[in-house]
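User: Batch of two.

Assistant: Item 1 of 2:
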Amino acid sequence: MIVLYGAVAAIALAITLLEGWVNHDRWTVHRIAGLIACILWPLPLAFFILHGSFSRLVTRLS
């Protein structure tokens, strides 16, 4: 799960970095916020997947 999370975040981060490089953008607040968002956006997805798995496990055991 951690490897998948890291792969998705790395791909999004690479695309964002390349987009800034191609456009010759400087390091603005918006660009830095975009890079941080690339790292953080998969967290809710991972949370919901783990929550669903845990809920099914608890339902089976009860």
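Item 2 of 2:
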Amino acid sequence: MTSLFVRSSAAALAFAGLALFAPTVAHADAGAKETLSFTGSAYENSPKEAKREAENSARRGALIHGFLHEQCVLLYAESYRLAPGYYAANAAIRCTR
């Protein structure tokens, strides 16, 4: 179980690293923009619930940093089964203002 946790943590960190290199959304104005990426994770009883909670966790982090919901784009949300009836999920969003 510990090795599964270590592998899942490593995968989450790898995805978070990839999220930093995703292209930014093009905007009409050429002014300087602030762009940050946020990640979230969750453990739930279904893959759909786990993904939703992971995305909500990432969006809460963005909200704490002052980003609005409309300023953020979902980069990925993925889930995997840990045990029967127990799922984990990771999600990343990128916010620009």
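Helices lie at 2-20, 47-64.
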